[in-house]
Amino acid sequence: MTGANVGLGRWLRELARPWTGRLLLIAVAVLGAALLDVVPPLIARYVIDERITVGRTDGLAAAAALYLAAVAAAHLLTAAYGYAAVTIAQHTLAGLRHRLFAHLLALPASYHDQVPTGDSISRCTADVEAIDDLFSTTGTRLLGETVRLLTAVAAMLVLSPALTLLAVLIVPLLIPLTSYLRRRVRAAERDARSAVGTLNIHLQETLGNAETIRAFGAHSYFTERFRQALLGWLGTVNRSTAFNAFYAPGVSMLAAVITAALLWIGARGTTETTGITVGTLTAFVLLFARFFTPLIALGDEWQKVQAALAGAERVFAVLDTPAVRSRSSSCAAPARDRGSRFVTSASATTRANRCCKG
């Protein structure tokens, strides 16, 4: 594990620590939804083997009701832990934004001399928003899908260890593909986060000196400079998208190949030689589809995950920068105007001057 990953993990643990109790409840809800998710395939197995193949219709209504109840309960739990995760994420990120802003104000002047203002603005806005996407939706979805994968594998083992062994043959093919994708997309997203910072640098420098630029008639130069920075950002985003675009289709094709092999082997050897019934084969194929759902979801969300991790590296790099110990100030917190907005601009400058003089 690299030093950057260690530092990132430390900050993530610190952010999550105040919410440990609620996170445990979310984990319980995720596990409950995943367990309920394997019930429908097992009910399908029961209906096929115990009712349809023997020509019986009694108990079908009860099986249908149980099927519907399991699906409804799983979706309700999913909605509950999704909502809880979003609320925790928003409170956590609000605290992170405040902490980052306060830390930037406490950094020495040498830091602000070396780091352009536009880059600091990018870290406070675009990079934190990328983390928000991960914590609010993507992370919760991937967590739920991962637990569903584990419960699906457990149910597959119970149904048929032989078919499970055939199904997991795809894992050695996925490991190098996923590792390659992770490295490439992470590097591309780091470049994209830096490119966004460069765009904000150009915006801040150009708009802050608009009158001077007009006076010297330098519109074309600064417009072209911004266009070149924009093309650099576009290139990094396209590179990340290109790596990500081939993952989900590739995994889906591998899943289709394994599913076809399962159907072929299972149909040739049902009952007579392997003891695999039609219901068992049906339930196994349904569970195998659930096994691949999180893998495909990972491909769909991988770009957002890497963008968030790259943004987190930039944000936490600022927070890891030692701050200057400031003397205690008697300045009161800024008052709010009648519209409940903080007084800014000239009044903020005046307040800062008073604090410095005091």
Brief synopsis:
This protein is mainly α and 358 residues long. The chain has one domain: Up-down Bundle (ABC transporter transmembrane region fold).
Describe this structure as you would to a colleague.
- The chain is mainly alpha-helical.
- The chain contains 13 helices and no strands.
- The radius of gyration is 27 Å and the shape is elongated.
- It has one domain (3-322): ABC transporter transmembrane region fold (Up-down Bundle).
Low-confidence stretches: 335-358
Top-tier CATH class: Mainly Alpha
In CATH, the architecture is Up-down Bundle
Summarize model confidence as the mean pLDDT.
78
Binned strand content: under 5%
Number of strands: 0
**Main beta-sheet strand count, sense and barrel state:** none
Radius of gyration: 27 Å
Distance between the termini: 48 Å
Number of domains: 1
Following the backbone from N to C, one meets helices and strands in this order, namely HHHHHHHHHHHHH
Q: Compute the number of helices.
A: 13
Would you give the CATH topology? ABC transporter transmembrane region fold
Quickly give the structural class.
Answer: mainly alpha
Helix content: over 70%
Shape: elongated
- The CATH superfamily is known as ABC transporter type 1, transmembrane domain
Domain ABC transmembrane type-1: 24-307
GO molecular function: ABC-type oligopeptide transporter activity; ATP binding
InterPro entries: ABC1_TM_dom (IPR011527), ABC1_TM_sf (IPR036640), Type_1_exporter (IPR039421)
Transmembrane segments: 23-48, 60-84, 149-175, 246-267, 273-292
